[in-house]
Amino acid sequence: MDPGHVSPYRNRGIAYGNQGQLDLAIADFTKIIELDPEFALAYTNRAYVYEMLGDMDAAASDRSKAEELSEGF
What is the SS3 string spanning 28-49? Predict the structure, then answer.
């Protein structure tokens, strides 16, 4: 996996989420945000995982950021 590209992290994060490995999913989505802070879908994906964990404050924060980044698209 090329550490500079976001797609593999997104795919793996989704796979981790589907397998119930939520901490690993969050780690991958967070890595995407570190690599590309403007990638709105990473915030949306991470928000979904936070919701699965019951962390509604973190989920709301990520959803808000995703909406902010998506304005105009």
Answer: HHHHHHHHCCCCHHHHHHHHHH
Token pair listed for 73: 């698209």
Whether 72 contacts 41, CB under 8 Å:
no
User: Residue 55 corresponds to which tokens in the numbers above?
Assistant: 């962390």
Q: What is the pTM of this model?
A: 0.91
| Domains of the chain and any CATH numbers | 7-70 (1.25.40.10)
Chain segment 14-57, per-residue pLDDT in tens = 999 999 999 999 999 999 999 999 999 999 999 999 999 999 99
Q: Find out whether 59 and 51 touch, Cβ atoms under 8 Å.
A: yes
User: Helix 40-53 to helix 7-18 angle, to the nearest 10 degrees?
Assistant: 20
